[in-house]
Amino acid sequence: MPSRFAGALAALCLAAAGTTAVLAAGPAAAAPACSVAYRVNQWQTGYTADLTVTNGATALSSWALTWHYPGGQTVTSAWNATVRQSGTAVTAESMPYNAALPAGGAVSFGLQGTGSGADPTDFALNGVACGDPAPPVTTTATTPITLPTTTTSAPPPAGCADAALCDDFEQQTGGTPGGRWTVGAANCQGTGTVTVDASVAHSGSRSVKVTGQGGYCNHAFLGTGVSGTGVLYGRFWVRHTTALPAGHVTFLAMRDSTDGKDLRAGGQNRALQWNRESDDATLPAQSPAGVAQSVPLPTGAWSCFEFRLDGAGGQLRTWLGSAEVPGLVVDGVPTADVDQQWLARSWHPAVTDLRLGWESYAGDADTLWFDDVAVGASRIGC
Fold this sequence. Notes:
By secondary structure, the chain is mainly β. It is 1% helix and 43% strand. It has one helix at 288-291; strands at residues 17-21, 26-27, 34-42, 46-55, 64-68, 74-79, 82-86, 89-93, 106-114, 124-125, 128-129, 138-139, 145-150, 165-167, 182-184, 193-197, 207-212, 220-228, 231-240, 249-256, 261-268, 271-276, 281-283, 303-310, 315-320, 323-324, 351-360, 366-376. Strands 14, 16, 17, 19, 24, 25, 26 and 28 form an 8-stranded antiparallel sheet that branches. Strands 15-18-27-20-21-22-23 form a 7-stranded antiparallel sheet, with no helix packed on it. Strand 7 (82-86) and strand 8 (89-93) form a beta hairpin. The two termini are 32 Å apart. 43% of the residues are buried. The model is unreliable at 1-29 and 134-155 (pLDDT under 50).
């Protein structure tokens, strides 16, 4: 199956808040500068890797992780970080959305490359080797310190409840989505495009338009990082011009760090479906009875697509226009013609990004618009 789009950015829609902290006098105890979990999916000619960096006792306003590849690996693309390579030396730098790394906090990013070899072991965070003590921080304050109040540059869009990610694209001023969003695809760039559209919108005056072309090399996505370790709810509005085809297509993809592959939503046999890239399981099963438990995606009108992903419980629910779709539910109870493929093995996803766009594995093209995207820990609604 095709690999996924690289590049993902995230941002939190935070309300203004003030914080007061009391700092104890005396030096802070030394702690390791960082630890790194490096998980690789290797095949004959290439690999993908998911990295999770856990910070030590010193908060960072930006970060850079360095390492050396002991083999012949070459990085070709990355997401959630800017990755550069010179010879065997690799540097991954923070993106604007994930630059702040609190003490004890963690950040994840991924990359794709060619070649093979042993996993790297000489990780260093901001120049300090992981496992070495970070430089001690000493404060002598004896009275409380009030940290400054922070405010967002613009109020969050309405209708997002307490969602951590909430974007109606009204702040986009260029022709290509920027800020928290990255545009591209990990495999190869073709003629598919992603642009900001000021003529079509679900709310306000802007949306993101994806001109999706047919074929493997024409994948086009915009993406942003998310945290999917608990129950995750997503909501976005989508409008498209061409009915879902008989062939397999995708308009939503999320990197599952547990599988090392994508969890994808799109269509097949002219109805909505979920697809698990790691084993190509589909939801529902692609039998006539299974497809009948799903629904098509209307054309020429805005549709509200919602999902609930419970990684710990291995469950998935889906709504279209606020109505649950029976064929797009995994609740742990086997349902004939729906989830038999899905329940063939244990599944506990932990997603790290959200990508909206178009993948066509044959010749099917479509034009789509996305607007009012939100992700949070409770259902957001339409």
